[in-house]
Write a structure and sequence with these properties.
This protein has a six-stranded mixed beta sheet. The radius of gyration is 21 Å and the shape is globular. It is built from eight helices and eight strands. It has one domain (29-54, 81-295). The protein is of the alpha/beta class.
Length: 343
């Protein structure tokens, strides 16, 4: 950027201040004061308790005119579009994300909003039993009224996080676009999402990765969640298996997940990578799965549903063109010609 030793040193300092990762909280018991639920009100975002990240770049910009100019120049050359989020998976309470401070990346508009295209999200997942002393606001954030065909609420929570990111970007700070209009595509495109599930930091037995140990019963969840309480398998691997299995169902356009699968194909350009304790567990290439996607217009009786067939074909033409534009980093149309495939 410059050959001045002084400015080189200043840029090094700015880099360490602005791009340093936020230290995640040690446990949910120590990090409740500033958390709030996502305001969408949908079932998918119930039990997601987030806090708005601070951004040290904003305070630096206010120091004086010289520092403002130096920081602005530094941000304009900032090469990274990679973000980190720590997610505490608090059983029967919810998912508690803590974003590393997202530096304002150069893009259209001002430095207050990141660019539309994100290279990667690195998500660290940690499993916790809920603290014994927890306000009702947090407790039972994820309920277990599981009927036939209903998804695991913790998986709905992960999808809710993903959907919130597509609409609001890193840190969920962008409120500039409508979220309740299914005819408007989300703004943010991400290439790769790395999900690193670590060993639980506490000494609990973790008889289940879904149910609180205090309320665990072998018959509390149906056989559709086989493996969630298999103590012969490490809890972090059980959660990885559960998440990757549901992702496969999502991308395979399982009938009850058609509309959710659409959004992933529309906003993801690369891969999901599941990592367990630092070692790759499974990789799912979104583009590859799209090419293998079969037509999904058969009705419940096995006969073609012509309306569903027409919607699927219109959506497929649109999403193929959209993904070609994504690869070139072009501005994308916000209009979705097919709001949903089913329903």
């Amino acid at each position: 950027m410059t050959e001045s030793p002084w400015l080189t040193l200043m840029y090094e300092i700015y880099g360490r201040v602005i791009c340093s990762a936020t230290k995640p909280p040690p446990s949910p018991a120590r990090d409740r004061r500033n958390r709030r639920s996502l305001p969408d009100g949908s079932r998918d975002t119930q039990g997601i308790f987030y806090r708005t990240p601070d951004n040290p770049a904003l305070s630096l910009l206010r120091v004086n005119r010289q520092v403002n100019e130096e920081v602005s120049n530094f941000l304009s050359y900032l090469p990274t579009r990679n973000y980190h989020v720590d997610i505490m998976c608090v059983k029967e309470s919810g998912l508690w994300p803590t974003w590393s401070i997202p530096p304002p990346l150069p893009g259209k508009g001002s430095f207050s909003a990141p660019t539309q295209y994100i290279d990667s999200i690195y998500a660290t997942l940690r499993i916790f039993n809920p603290p014994k002393a927890m306000r009702s606001y947090f407790r039972n954030g994820l309920t277990f009224h599981l009927s036939y065909g209903q998804q695991d609420p913790i998986i709905d929570g992960f999808y809710g996080l993903l959907e919130a990111f597509f609409h609001r970007g890193p840190g969920f700070t962008d409120r500039s676009r409508p979220e309740d209009d299914p005819g408007v595509a989300p703004r943010y495109i991400v290439k790769d999402i790395i999900i690193d599930i670590t060993a639980p930091p506490d000494a609990s037995k973790h008889r289940s990765v879904i149910v609180d140990d205090l309320h665990y019963r072998p018959d509390r969840l149906t056989s559709r969640y086989a493996g969630h309480d298999d103590v012969s398998v490490a809890p972090e691997e059980r959660l990885a298996a559960l998440m990757s299995r549901h992702l496969e169902m999502l991308l395979s356009f399982t009938p009850k997940l058609l509309n959710k699968g659409m959004l992933v194909y529309e906003q993801m350009s690369g891969s999901f990578v599941f990592v367990v304790c630092g070692k790759e567990y499974r990789r799912v290439e979104v583009e590859e799965r799209l090419h293998k996607l079969e037509e999904v217009y058969l009705g419940t009786d096995g006969e073609p549903d012509l309306d569903l067939r027409g919607r699927f074909e219109r959506w497929r033409r649109w999403v193929d063109e959209r993904r070609r534009s994504m690869k070139e980093g072009l501005d994308l149309s916000t209009h979705r010609p097919v709001q949903q495939l089913k329903g």
